[in-house]
Amino acid sequence: MRNYLRLILFSMGLLAGVQIPGWLELYYQRVDARLQQAETSLAPFQANADEHFGGALDALITHYRSNPDPVVNRDADSIQQLVAQRERLTSEQALHSALWFKQLTHLLLRGDRALIEDTLTHYNYVVPLNQDAMTCGLLVALLAALLGDLFFSLLAWPFKPSPRRRPEFR
Fold first, then answer.
1. DSSP 47-88
2. pTM above 0.85, yes or no
3. Phi/psi class of residue 112: alpha, beta or left (left: φ > 0; alpha: ψ in -120 to 50)?
4. Could you report the per-residue pLDDT of 12-37, keeping only the tens digit for each?
5. In degrees rounded to 5, what are phi and psi of residue 157?
6. Tens of pLDDT along 87-125?
């Protein structure tokens, strides 16, 4: 029975592990899409900054903030948010070329939580047959099987019969 449980854990780990590279790819597709959206939204302001402030968006934002009109003042906040979003997404996008385990570590420790939740919500399970997916799947499967075996061993330990001592004859 224990061998069947180990096989089940291995299979579940394999299926879960092959999902990781596909999920990472979807995450970075979402990063790219949002970065393009931020660039498109910033384009008219960047054109204005290019024409009047030598391309410096910070100077345009400062100019908007110094304007007494509250509508123009709020536009400065909107532009600042777009600039911050572009910088954040650009730094996220830079990790797309890293190895899958570095990407995963980054997302688990410092990833954009809203974008991660959005990606998980829209993820469809697939079984890709590429090197990253197979490597990741095997690693997760082995880990699941080993942890499951350790868990079952710990559960069975109190019930394991103690070794009998044979009486010594002299």
1. HHHHHHHTT-HHHHHHHHHHSS-HHHHHHHHHHHHHHHHHHH
2. no
3. beta
4. 888 888 888 889 999 999 999 999 99
5. -55, -45
6. 999 999 999 999 988 999 999 999 889 999 999 998 888
